[in-house]
Amino acid sequence: ASRVIALMNQKGGVGKTTTSVNLAAGLAAVGRPTLLVDLDPQGHATMHMGVDPGSVDPSLYDLLLDPPAASGEGLDPLDALMCIRPNLGLLPCNVDMAAAEHELSDVDERQLRLRRILAPLLEIYEFVLIDCPPSLGLLTLNGLAAAREVMVPMQAHFLALQGVGKLLETVTLVGQHVNPSLRVSGIILCMHDENTRHSREVVDDIRSFLEDSSEQDVPWAGARVCDPAIRRNIKLAECPSFGQTVFEYAPGCPGAQDYGALAQSLVDEWDAM
Amino acid sequence: ASRVIALMNQKGGVGKTTTSVNLAAGLAAVGRPTLLVDLDPQGHATMHMGVDPGSVDPSLYDLLLDPPAASGEGLDPLDALMCIRPNLGLLPCNVDMAAAEHELSDVDERQLRLRRILAPLLEIYEFVLIDCPPSLGLLTLNGLAAAREVMVPMQAHFLALQGVGKLLETVTLVGQHVNPSLRVSGIILCMHDENTRHSREVVDDIRSFLEDSSEQDVPWAGARVCDPAIRRNIKLAECPSFGQTVFEYAPGCPGAQDYGALAQSLVDEWDAM
Ligand SMILES: Nc1ncnc2c1ncn2[C@@H]1O[C@H](COP(=O)(O)OP(=O)(O)OP(=O)(O)O)[C@@H](O)[C@H]1O
Ligand SMILES: Nc1ncnc2c1ncn2[C@@H]1O[C@H](COP(=O)(O)OP(=O)(O)OP(=O)(O)O)[C@@H](O)[C@H]1O
Ligand SMILES: [Mg+2]
Ligand SMILES: [Mg+2]
């Protein structure tokens, strides 16, 4: 079995890509075969790994338009798959993916295409991380339909809390219609200022909300605030410009420590199941 | 004449709302009649001023659906206008505005509605700041069509640079089709870490790009990096939860100093024209 995680939050700039890339790299670094899926037309995860979205061919976009079918037709995901680091594969985005939301809007099984693309790849990869775009549109819905769990990167700020209701409502709808086993397993605190009272208050807010929900029949009943939080660290903002993960760019810096520890906690939790 | 500024950036979480609110408050504080327009269905600017988007009636949304017409029909903007502080008016968002993009998609002059709403208000307000949503959709296009200048809040990070091309392309298109006098007048550096080499390099990148464009026939030929940059300051993330501007919540803190100085620079520039 594989652990398939959608890194999702419709709010922009909260750390989805930074988390997808560096968590994937952390998992690969401890020997777990990991697949990173760049589901965002911005192509930031692809760029972050040093791949140029302008020259990717074929890409995840091509697969979404022509996914593998039971009949054997459709593109083979292995053609788009890039083995970019030891233990780390990438399904890259290319610049045309901006058209996907529109072009997929009235095709068959439009929410299930990514699930079909990933099915054969689950035999190769133990962990799959899906970097979602900052929206609740068709691409994100594909991410949620293909995943088994959702992790929500967010900042511990008041305004960041405002979108959480809508996010959970979307996860619930996807769970009801196309993916009954979908769970929210964690909140990942990104760009975290552990020293401010404001952050602590917002985190307390999140924790008490999750405690209240733990006895209800909701997809986030088992969710927790992930440990550790990811501290703000300029190295994490620098390494994308070099096409590197934080482990390559600045091993041992706080960003590498935090994502490394978070990756290890995901592995330990998985092995214990 | 009035200075009508769209605070625009399709990237999420870059400081559009924090800038719209605190710059508007800074202008009002030095005695300039200022209007804050909450064009974002998230309603964060409205909340930030202590107004509940769930109970606003009528709202900017109602005006967009039924704007004032030459015939005298349509809603009166003064009905939706809220005088929320000395010298500071608000055209508030309400929760239904999420439907606006869809409902406006095939009406007459769908990009020009905000311009018609603002026209009578320019007799009352010297400065108008329009808080745009994180998208390039119909609401943002209304903001760009109604404005005379665009200011772009952004973070001095590599990944933040990636969306700038698309942003400028959109401003150019709006300029060509509906608003020939639209200019990009400034880049506002938000959440700025002045002490890191990475931020300095990105700012140098931006400055040299603007210098190269200064002789071209493009809408950003006159744009500059605004001074001062707005430093990261937790007070700016805290005050929205109290429905206060930073000047009310923590006068004298770095966030108040920076937005106060930026407001003063906009006033000085305007008075000198
Ligand atoms: N812990 C951190 N410390 C410092 N900078 C960070 C950190 N995490 C992310 N960043 C920077 O913050 C910005 C936003 O992060 P990121 O791109 O990962 O967010 P996102 O949610 O994927 O954004 P989008 O919604 O546009 O896809 C980027 O410039 C990134 O380099
Ligand atoms: N200078 C700053 N220092 C600290 N926190 C800040 C600063 N500027 C903004 N923030 C915080 O960062 C987050 C994003 O800011 P803001 O909401 O203003 O961005 P935005 O571009 O309007 O986002 P959206 O795209 O969702 O509308 C908020 O939680 C805000 O309180
Ligand atoms: Mg991203
Ligand atoms: Mg905003």
Describe the structure.
The structure is a homodimer of 273-residue chains. Chain A is 41% helix and 14% strand. Chain A is an alpha/beta fold and 273 residues long. In chain A, strands 3-4-2-5-1-6-7-8 form an eight-stranded mixed β-sheet, sandwiched between helices. Chain A is globular, with a radius of gyration of 18 Å. The structure holds adenosine-5'-triphosphate (ATP) (2 copies) and magnesium ion (2 copies). Residues 16-17, 40, 44, 131 of chain A line the site of one magnesium ion.
Topology readout:
Two copies of one chain form a homodimer.
Chain A: E1 3-7, H1 16-29, E2 34-38, H2 44-48, H3 60-65, H4 77-80, E3 82-85, E4 88-91, H5 100-103, H6 113-118, E5 127-131, H7 138-146, E6 149-154, H8 158-161, H9 164-177, E7 183-189, H10 197-213, E8 224-225, H11 234-238, H12 246-249, H13 254-272
Parallel strand pairs in A: 1-5, 1-6, 2-4, 2-5, 6-7, 7-8
Antiparallel strand pairs in A: 3-4
The complex binds adenosine-5'-triphosphate (ATP) (2 copies) and magnesium ion (2 copies).
The site of one magnesium ion has 4 residues of chain B, from helix 1.
